[in-house]
Design a protein that fits this description.
It contains 17 helices and two strands. The protein is mainly α and 382 residues long. The C terminus is likely disordered.
């Protein structure tokens, strides 16, 4: 939209307009606009949310209720201005004709609606939101529609449906199985982020690192030369997701302005389900589902801690952690909330760095392959 506006006015030289069309520039501007809108309208929205949607602490653990009792009047559904900010940033600076941008916007709004319904159910009744089956069904429907849309784009280039197992050197075509795999990844990422959203600033800070790393992955995947050099799938048009990732980072930074401890607002399921789903969608579009496990390591560990806790309790009627997800385990140990959050941020940053570093594992160095042969030839000559 922004580029169309500049081109229509014809007030700037062509080379300047072309410079504004660069993905990196547009991603930075999308981040700035999303951040600015979130911080500008945040106070007014928080005031409105505080008057209508105040959080009520609900948990099966009495200890959790006691620890978070002071947060009971904090407004929730702050994900509304996260989604609003990122949609505005993307609408201004992304190519809206790009199918991956359209799928991302659909996921952001669709999952946001599912999360908002769940948040409203929590606020308007004594229940802990809508039933788990209904919530999961809503997520699956939204994720499946987005997956089918992306599949229709990828099927035009069969290479985009290849699934590569790192280090093993095994590659096979997913075909129509791309759709269920994509759905699982999107819903899994969405719920993992949702589980992590339990302390002030925790999920938001970790999401910035993960989204920033996925922005690099998307840019590389959409760049012919970089994709070939790093031996990653070349997905035409995937580079535009860098703008989406930039908008996500900017919107989250604007949200953290108010969500840092002590939080003035919570993102609620409205924000966490949506942001996690965007992360998962970016991974399936760029064909980096396994890399997301590394980049989003904190979210994965949080989800695994819940699975282990529930499974072990059903098996042995005992608990491994003091409380799950994992951040509550450390809270039960007496660690201050701010210390837990910052340490999780550090872990998220390390996971993102490690994930990006693994991209180099696929690089083949021709000079290294030639060195042994050259040395052998030298010995023969002698």
């Amino acid at each position: 939209m922004f580029l169309w506006f500049l081109e229509s006015l014809k007030l700037l030289p062509p080379d300047v307009t072309a410079a504004f069309g660069k993905i990196t520039f547009r991603a930075a501007m999308a981040a700035f606009v999303s951040f600015a809108l979130a911080t500008l309208f945040g106070p007014k929205l928080i005031k409105w949310l505080k008057a209508n949607f105040r959080e009520r602490i609900k948990s099966d653990s009495q200890r959790i209720i006691q620890l978070h009792e002071h947060k009971s009047a904090t407004p929730t559904m702050g994900g509304l201005f996260i989604i609003g900010g990122l949609v505005a940033g993307v609408s201004c600076f992304a190519n809206l004709e790009n199918p991956f941008i359209r799928a991302s916007l659909f996921i952001a709004i669709g999952m946001g609606i599912v999360g908002a319904i769940d948040d409203l159910a929590k606020l308007q009744s004594e229940s802990n939101g809508i039933s788990k089956r209904s919530k999961l069904l809503g997520q699956v429907i939204v994720a499946t529609i987005a997956s089918l849309f992306v599949y229709q784009v990828h099927v035009a280039t069969p290479e985009s449906l290849l699934f590569k197992i790192p280090l093993a050197g095994t590659t096979f075509s997913l075909g129509i199985w791309f759709v269920p795999l994509s759905t699982i990844v999107i819903v899994g990422a969405s719920n993992s982020v949702n589980l992590t959203d339990g302390l002030d600033g925790l999920a938001g800070g970790c999401l910035i690192f993960a989204s920033g790393a996925m922005a690099v992955v998307a840019y590389v995947g959409g760049h012919a030369e970089l994709a070939e050099y790093l031996n990653v799938p070349r997905i035409a048009g995937a580079g535009e997701l860098t703008v989406m990732a930039g908008a996500v980072c900017g919107a989250i930074l604007g949200f953290l302005w108010f969500n840092c401890h002590p939080a003035q607002v919570f993102m609620g399921d409205t924000g966490s389900l949506s942001l996690g789903a965007i992360l998962g969608l970016m991974a399936v579009i760029t064909r980096q589902e396994l890399l997301l496990v590394v980049i989003g390591g904190v979210f994965v560990i949080e989800a695994i801690s819940v699975i282990i806790q529930v499974g072990y309790f059903k098996w042995r009627r005992r608990r491994i952690f003091l409380c799950a997800p994992l951040h509550h385990h450390f809270q039960f140990q007496g660690l201050p909330e701010s210390r837990i959050v910052v340490r999780f941020w550090i872990a998220a940053g390390l996971c993102a760095a490690l994930g990006l570093a693994t991209l180099k594992l696929g690089v083949r160095d021709p000079s290294a392959e030639q060195t042994p042969m050259t040395a052998m030839e030298m010995r023969i000559e002698r």
